[in-house]
């Protein structure tokens, strides 16, 4: 996106790039509370290229979730612009916003709070398709493909109710629901934070696979810099409603410029290259044993010793 005027060019942060799929500029969000207005997001700007993952990281309460939700107007920001494929969505009507949901989706931290656990899996995954008025045959096909992409079979799980599944499986169902519409970008809000340690890596793997296979862009929100680093091409570090540092994930990791980023990094464990690949057990009947990046397991858990024990036990049991 090119600035329209000289004044725009002067105020536009230099790190925003031409050709971005999503551009967020000078976003401000606040909430009315009994004790006054809380300013949650204070002038946040970033962009995401096609196929790129931007990690949005920072401590609890710094405004990550509010930023992620504002992209989809859940709720809308007080001011600022969100541009998708060159279109300023801040000016969209409800109808236009509904249509945009085909291209922009969101995955929430707790899957069970984002769908009715008593519904059948096919109906949960088909929710967005129903809202968009997708025809029956195409609906069936899309649900089947989306479930397949998260490692589930519509024949095996389609007619079962969501409450019959584990937390990790429910998160995979919610990923399938987002995928069914064929989005170009998904905002993932702490997608593994509510999951058991051993399941987190599997869900992160599913996200990486679908991202690669669908050439998807992700905005990946997490309080855990290590998880974000594994998932992201680029990282934006948020502190008290502002982005204090943004850049290439490896560069931010190797050479953080902000003291707050350095503080976050100090909490991240380091893993030797030789110990990187491990095999994880299946977590459900339709899963297979799978070799994953140990860093994913480790950073997802933050408790490497515990995971190491589980992994070696399972490796032993299988040999
Ligand atoms: N609906 C709301 N009403 C009032 N205040 C809110 C609301 N949502 C968020 N806030 C406040 O806005 C600030 C940013 O919250 P937000 O949830 O975006 O942060 P976060 O970085 O995602 O933290 P967490 O990971 O804990 O959710 C916090 O001070 C929070 O208390």
Automatic annotation (TrEMBL):
Alphabetical UniProt keywords: ATP-binding, Nucleotide-binding, Transport
Superkingdom of origin: Bacteria
CDD domains: ABC_NikE_OppD_transporters (cd03257)
Gene3D superfamilies recorded: P-loop containing nucleotide triphosphate hydrolases
Coiled coil feature spans: none
Keyword flag Cytoplasm: no
Domain ABC transporter stretches: 22-265
Short name of one Pfam family: ABC_tran
Molecular function GO terms recorded: ATP binding
Similarity field: Belongs to the ABC transporter superfamily.
Protein name: ATP-binding cassette domain-containing protein
């Amino acid at each position: 996106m090119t600035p329209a005027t000289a004044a725009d060019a002067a105020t536009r942060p230099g790190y925003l790039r031409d050709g971005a799929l999503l551009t967020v500029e000078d976003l401000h969000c606040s909430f009315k509370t009994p004790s006054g207005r809380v300013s949650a997001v204070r002038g946040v700007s970033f962009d995401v290229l096609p196929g790129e993952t931007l990690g949005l990281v920072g401590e609890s309460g710094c405004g990550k979730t509010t930023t992620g939700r504002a992209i989809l107007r859940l709720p809308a920001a007080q001011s600022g612009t969100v541009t998708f494929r060159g279109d300023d969505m801040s000016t969209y009507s409800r109808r236009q916003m509904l249509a945009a949901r085909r291209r922009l989706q969101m995955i929430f931290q707790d899957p069970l709070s984002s769908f009715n656990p008593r519904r059948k899996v096919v109906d949960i995954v088909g929710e967005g398709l129903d809202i968009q008025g997708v025809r029956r045959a195409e609906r069936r096909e899309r649900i089947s493909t989306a479930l397949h992409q998260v490692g589930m079979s519509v024949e095996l799980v389609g007619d079962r109710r969501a409450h019959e599944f584990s937390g990790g499986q429910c998160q995979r169902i919610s990923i399938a629901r987002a995928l069914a519409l064929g989005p170009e970008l998904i905002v993932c809000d702490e997608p593994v934070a509510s999951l058991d340690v051993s399941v987190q890596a599997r869900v992160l793997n599913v996200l990486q696979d679908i991202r690669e296979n669908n050439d998807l862009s992700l905005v990946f929100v997490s309080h855990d810099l290590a998880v974000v680093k594994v998932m992201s091409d680029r990282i934006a570090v948020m502190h008290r409603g502002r982005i204090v540092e943004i850049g290439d994930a490896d560069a931010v990791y190797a050479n953080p410029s902000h003291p707050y980023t350095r503080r976050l990094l100090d909490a991240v464990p380091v893993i030797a290259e030789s110990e990187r690949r491990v095999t994880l057990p299946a977590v459900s009947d339709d899963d297979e044993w799978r070799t994953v990046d140990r860093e994913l397991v480790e950073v997802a858990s933050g408790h490497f010793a515990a995971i190491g024990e589980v992994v070696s036990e399972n490796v032993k049991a299988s040999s």
